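Researcher: Predict the fold of Mannosyltransferase (PIG-V).
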Amino acid sequence: MTPWWLRVAVVWLVSRAVTTGILLWFAARQGDNAWTRAHPDYLSFAQLWDGTWYHIVADSGYPSVLPMTADGHVAENAWAFMPAYPFLVRGLMVATGLPWELLSVFVSLVFSLGAALVFYRMLRMVLHGETALFAVVLFCVGPLSPILQVSYAESMHVFLLAVALYLLMRRSYVLLVPVIAVMALTRPSGLAFALALGLHVIHRLVSKRRDPFPVWERILAVGVAVFSGLMGLLWPFVAWMVTGSMTAYTDTELAWRVPYLGYRELVPFTPWVQGAEFWMPGLLGIVVVVVVVVAFFSFLFTPWARRLGVTLRLWIASYGIYLLAVFFPQSSTFRLLLPMFPLAGALAQPRSRWYRVLLVALLIAGQWVWCYYCWWVDGYDWTPP
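Model: C-alpha cells for Mannosyltransferase (PIG-V) follow.
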C-alpha cells in the first residue's frame, strides 16, 4: 500500500508543475514593469509586488524613522511586512551564499509541501482518508496556490497555521506556544488565533459533562489564548518602540488604502462598510456585504462544514471576524482568505467523479484568472495580490 505521505507528495508535485506552467506562461508575456524587464525568468517573476518588500527587509531590516508623504502622512514602508519569513531566508543566504531570489522561492516551496502534509494529517482526524486526500488536491490547485511558490510569506504561514490547528485538535496546548510565537510574526494571525482559542475554551466548558475539561487543561488553554493575543500585539509594539510612533504599524498598513479611501483612521468593523461604499455606492453595497457575511457564517452550519469538527470551524469563524474587523476589501482580500484553507475539507466531501473533475478544472482555471488580474503586471494595474 502506498504510504500516505507519498500520495500527498505526488499530489503536491503534480500541482506545482501545473502552477509553474501557468506562471511561466504569464512570465513569457510579461512586459517591462517596475519589478522586472520584459519576459523575466521564473525566479525574477516570483519577486513581484510584496516579494520586493520582503527582500528589502531581508537586506536592510526596518526603518527607525517612518517615511512621510509630502502632505505629512506615513508612506508605504517595510513595517507592514513581518520578519519571520525574510529573516529566515536571510539566515539561509548567509549560511549558503545563495541569492535571495532562489532561496525565497525554495523556502516557499518547502513550506507548501509541509503544509500539504500537515493538512492531510489534520483532516484525517475528522474525515476519511480518500476525502482528506482530495481536500489536499483542492488546497494544492486552488486559485491562490501560485502564491505558495513565490517570494511571499503565505506558504510559511499556512504551514505554521496547519501545525497550530493540528495541535489544537489534539489539545497539545503547551506545544502551541512556540508555533504561535513564530506564526504571529510571519503573518498577522495572533489575534484571530487568540479568539479561536477563547471560543475553544468556552466550547469545552459548555460540553465538559460529555467531554471532561480538567482544571489544569483550562489553565493551559486560557494561558495559550492570552499568549496568542499578546503575540498578536507584539509587532505593533515593536514598531512603536523602534520608531517612537505608537501607531507606526497601523499607519503603515493604512498607507496601502490611500488610493481607495484617502487618509482615514482605523476603526474596527468599518472597513467593509467603507469597501461597500467604494465599490458599490448606495444601499446595494451594504446589502451585498450583509448577504456575503450571512452566507459565509451560515455555511459553517451545513453538514459538510460540521464534519470538519468544532475546532476547525471555530478557527474559520474567528479568522472571518478578524478580517471583518480590520481589512478593507480589495484585490488582496482573495490572498487573505488563504488561512481559511480547512474549508477545502468541506468542498471535498461529495464523491461524484464529475463533481470532482469539474471542481479541479474550475480551480485550475481560477489560478489563471487570479494570475491575470492580480499577479501579472499589465501596465495600468491596480489590483495587487
